[in-house]
Every structure is written in C-alpha cells, then in structure tokens.
Design brief:
Order of helices and strands: EHEHEHEEEHH
Helix content: 25-40%
Number of strands: 6
Shape: globular
CATH architecture: Alpha-Beta Complex
Structural class: alpha/beta
Length: about 210
C-alpha cells in the first residue's frame, strides 16, 4: 500500500482529500502531518498556486521521506484584480478567522456590481524532494452579498458556483466535491494514481 503524506494542517482539506480518493483506500493510506514528529512549517512564498503547492509537496516529501501531496487554493475575484488570490488564507492577517476574511472580502465588494469570481486549486505530488506532477482545478461563480450556509469552510458561505443557486456552504459534501476546484484537481490526482496502479504494482518513483 502506498503511504502518502497530505502536506497540510487543515483538517477540512484532509477530510476532502480522503473523501475524493475513497475509491483508492485499499491502495493508498493517507498520512497526516501530525503523525510526522517535528514536521516543519513550510513558508508559502511562491507567486502562483502551482508554485506554492509544489514547494509544499517537495519539502514535505523530503522531510518525511515519502510521497507527499499538497495543495494551494484560493479565491480569485474579478473586480478586485484577482485578490485575494494566493493570499486568500492570510487576506485578513495572520490568525484571522474565516469570518474575518469573509467580512473583509464583503467590505471590499461593497457596492460592486461585478461579482464574478473563481476558486482555483493546484494539487502537487512530490517524492523525496523531487517534483512528480501538478494538477489544476477551477470553478467559476459569483460572490454573494452576505454569507449563507454552515457547511464547508473558508469562503464557501459567500461563493455560488455557476449552475447553482446555493453557496458552497449550502451544498452537501458530495455535491461540493463533484464540482469544486479542489474536487476537480483531486479527481485529476486520482486519475493519475489509478493509471499508475494499472501499469504496475507500485509507483515507479517509489
């Protein structure tokens, strides 16, 4: 069985990873960072989602000496010139809550009629410090005037994906994972892993 480190301290992301990859649970065991003694904090200083994701995956895989998967994701708002973008998690400052970030976003959008936005996720796989592959997922939608829903996390309560009338936070986990940026990126990861498993008993990079 492949031991794969989920290089994130965000338990919500780990839960989504496990749900999306559940059909591979007999082949992949997802390890969390709290199972790795003295796991270091990785500085996200890249200029794109893909750069940040791969940096986290490479450094995590080198430290843990195993395959690692990491993602970097965020909200890109048209009217805000792409903000909060790669700074989505730190948009309201270090230590801010999801509610703080949402409040700052809605204040910045006050009176703005162009509510177009998209969520972007880059998911990267690395092994022993070496890049394997990066996958990108996106979902377009719009920013609401006020938060709605209690499911999900991050900016989910203020984002309505195209084709829906509910925010991500009002959708079930299954509904969200089927269309979300992370769901699409992780589906690509799953396809890649299935393809690798179909070709051999184990990965060529393991």
């Amino acid at each position: 069985m492949l031991q794969m480190l989920a290089a994130t301290t965000n338990k919500n992301k780990v839960r989504e990873f496990q749900e999306i990859l559940k059909d591979l649970k007999d082949k992949i065991n997802i390890i969390t960072t709290d199972a790795i003694p003295n796991f270091p904090e990785i500085v996200e200083d890249g200029t794109t989602f893909a750069e940040n994701a791969m940096k986290k995956a490479k450094e995590a895989s080198a430290f843990a000496d195993m395959v690692a998967m990491a993602d970097d994701s965020g909200l890109v708002v048209e009217a805000l010139d792409g903000a909060p973008g790669i700074h989505s998690a730190r948009y309201a400052g270090e230590g801010a809550s999801d509610a703080d970030r949402i409040a700052k976003l809605l204040k910045a959008m006050d009176g703005v009629t162009d509510r177009r936005a998209k969520f972007v996720c880059a998911a990267a796989i690395a092994y022993r410090g070496e890049e394997v592959k990066t996958f990108i997922g996106e979902i377009k939608g719009k920013i609401t005037l006020a938060p709605s829903g209690s499911n999900g996390f991050g900016y989910d309560p203020v984002f309505i994906p195209d084709g829906f009338e509910k925010t991500f936070a009002e959708l079930t986990d299954e509904e969200k994972n089927a269309v979300s940026h992370r769901g699409r990126a992780m589906s690509a990861v799953a396809d890649f892993l299935r393809d690798e498993f179909s070709k051999m008993d184990d990965f060529e990079f393991v």
